[in-house]
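Input (4-hydroxy-3-methylbut-2-en-1-yl diphosphate synthase (flavodoxin)):
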Amino acid sequence: MIRQKVAVKDLIFGSGKVFVQTMTKTDTRNVNATVEQIRQIQKAGADLVRLAVPDNEAAESIYKIVKRVSIPLVADVHFDYRLALKAIDAGISKIRINPGNIGSKNNLLEVVKAASSNNIPIRIGVNEGSIPKDLLGKFQDNPVDALVSSVEREVSLLENVGFNNIVISAKTFSVNLLLKTYELLFEKFPYPLHVGVTEAGPLFQGTVRSSVAIGILLNKGIGDTIRVSLSSSPIDEIRVGKEILKSLELETGPVIISCPTCGRTEVNLRKLTKVVEKRLLNVKKPLKIAIMGCAVNGPSEAKSADLGIACAKQFAFLFKYGKIIKKIDNDNLEKIFLDELESLIFQEDL
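Output:
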């Protein structure tokens, strides 16, 4: 099957690159707060941002918001097709709707006409809680088929009116159910897939659950855009999403190699690791930084690192690519290491 490409502003879904997105957690009607959060999200490395559009006031706010940010925005609309029309008119880059819940066929035709005229993709966003009752009854013992059939129904509504600028998602909380559903969607449809676990949970639990599900699918080549849904800040969602991509080598960026510490560790390695992690937060350069607690996990086990440190009781060894370049006193360890890191960040030939 030839995979279809979909353009969201300058982003090309289906091009092989995986895009990371999140959703604002401000009231969209509060323009200043929403713009500020979008800017923070973009600084964290997001590729696009989704906004809730629950009413006309929120839709009106989009006119002001799009003028103050540069990242592509997605309008999340339910039930009222007029909100989708207003979001498109305001300059939104993509809309998320379920065609089956916005009323009559004429309502859908109006949205499709506006989206087509402005080259705006529509994401069909099915989830386990939105499956129609008739499909739940028909597939009560097979939730995968219920989800996939729900997607098929929504896709058909768009295809039947000549619209195929489509992105698909079918989210669930169950990792196993999600994996089976997306594997079937990938086989059945040529459209780009938005992947994520719905209502994944608090930061720690949600990070684990999302990383397992999204990581497995991406490793199989399934997924064009992802969201890590957490009961936490959208910045956390972006950071976890970016780390998933980096772990699969689907995106470059800083990586920290640090040992888990044990009884041999003589320094506060966790403190140093946190300081380095904070410094690298918005760095784009593909650096590999090693922070090791002893000689056992020293230069030899982190020989691929651009910069590393192996700590002992009174001194530490600074190394690059497995070769020791300097022996330093532990009293100056953090300052010297951060100075070396700073030089590396701004080094042009890396």
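The mean pLDDT is 90.
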